[in-house]
Design brief:
Blueprint (H helix, E strand, L loop, with lengths): L1 H8 L9 H19 L4 H14 L13 H11 L3 H12 L3 H5 L4 H6 L2 H13 L4 H8 L6 H11 L4 H13 L1 H12 L2 H4 L11 H18 L4 H16 L3 H8 L1 H16 L3 H4 L2 H31 L7 H4 L7 H13 L6 H26 L1
Helix pairs in contact: 2-3, 3-17, 4-17, 5-10, 5-15, 5-16, 5-17, 8-9, 8-19, 9-10, 10-11, 10-22, 11-19, 12-19, 12-21, 14-15, 15-16, 16-17, 21-22
């Protein structure tokens, strides 16, 4: 009887619990708390947090290769490049390129705001000794684009996927806290009051042609960006052509919601105690924050540089919107513009560099894949 009882006890997970696993539970529960109580990126932080808890349950086998449920989600959804491109399909269907097309020069702000990606890449590799693949994965956090971060990490540094994804989505959620001090440091009160001239109206034909031309140009320039860029542009074509409303609504709603669930859970499940509780994880979060700050700063500096070369002045706040945290970065810029001048309405202008930043981050990921894979 005692022998059977002993056998029963040793079939439970309680016997194999470690302090590291319990610590990871606390991290997962913290993310769930931030998602539920604070509203920080709840659609991703909640399933990621729950996935972390599941990954640190001994004997559950949810991430066991070949047999684990969450391992199958990860292997066939993320590793096989299915889920991140589908996320981009939904994002494309939600994106209005009108503000960017109305003033194409704002594209340069989206490109300039990728500076932090490359600065953090070189810092991670040259100063802290991360491999080129790891450094690229850390640097892409500066683009503030969660799906792109996950896509690149799954290719170049799968062991860092969960950490980098949590860092990317955490900083996206903290945009209203991180951005304002940087903006105030790099701009004057007079610059923040600059009123943008009225933008021209963008016609339907332009909006239909853009995703077609965009996909040709971007994939020809950076072929490795094809999985994300192609889905992003076809999703946008669904939106703008106005003849496939059922597909457009499905991409925006049902499909995007479903793939978000199957993205968050396996990403969180990669964060077991063995992978996460290492000293270099701290460096990843610090470098990710540095990359995000640097991207915000370089976007602003590019805007100020454009003002030196042009008679028509750009409000340099728009440079900060070049990071691809859509649409939160644009909202922060709009809010700070109104704080400087209540008549200053920057939201639609900020959406131009904001969506350009998405393209810029995908392009940066494609360049890293081309050079480092």
């Amino acid at each position: 009887m005692i022998e059977k009882l002993s056998t029963l006890i040793f079939t439970t997970g309680f016997v194999y619990l470690t302090p590291g696993m319990v610590f990871m539970w606390l991290i997962g529960l913290t993310l769930i708390f931030l998602a539920v109580a604070k509203g920080y990126e709840p659609l991703l932080l909640l399933p990621i947090g729950f996935g972390i808890v599941l990954a640190n349950l001994p004997l559950a086998g949810l991430m066991e290769p070949e047999t684990g449920l969450l391992w199958k989600f990860y292997e066939y959804g993320i590793h096989w490049e299915i889920i991140p491109p589908l996320i981009f399909l939904g994002l494309g269907a939600l994106t209005d390129f009108g503000p960017m097309l109305a003033r194409p020069s704002l594209i340069f702000l989206g490109a300039g705001a990728q500076g932090g990606v490359y600065i953090a890449f070189f810092a991670a590799h040259l100063l802290l000794g991360f491999s080129l693949q790891e450094a690229a994965t850390i640097g892409i956090i500066g683009g503030a684009d969660g799906p792109t971060t996950i896509f690149l990490a799954s290719k170049l540094a799968p062991h860092m996927l969960g950490t980098c994804a949590v860092a990317a989505y955490s900083y996206m959620a903290l945009v209203p806290i991180i951005m304002p001090p940087i903006i105030k440091l790099l701009t004057t009160a007079t610059e923040r009051k600059i009123v943008m001239p009225k933008a021209r109206k963008v016609g339907r034909l332009e909006k239909i042609v853009f995703p077609l031309v965009g996909v040709l140009v971007m994939i020809l320039l950076v072929p490795a960006s094809a999985p994300l860029m192609s889905m992003f542009m076809v999703g946008n074509l669904f939106r703008e052509c106005k003849v496939v409303e059922r597909l457009n609504l499905a991409a925006q709603n049902e499909l995007l919601n479903i793939v978000t669930i199957f993205l968050g859970l396996p990403v969180g499940a990669t964060m077991n105690a063995q992978n996460f509780l290492r000293k270099d994880v701290i460096f990843i979060f610090i470098l990710g924050l540095f990359a995000f700050i640097a991207s915000t700063a370089t976007g602003i500096l590019v805007a100020k540089g454009m003002n030196l070369l042009s008679k028509t002045k750009i409000n340099p706040l728009l440079g900060a919107a070049g990071v691809s945290a859509v649409p939160m970065a644009a909202r922060v810029v709009h809010k700070m513009g109104q704080q400087a001048d209540k008549k200053n309405y920057l939201l639609m202008y900020a959406m131009g560099p904001n969506v350009a930043g998405v393209i810029g981050t995908v392009t940066a990921a494609g360049i890293f894949l081309t050079l480092l894979k």
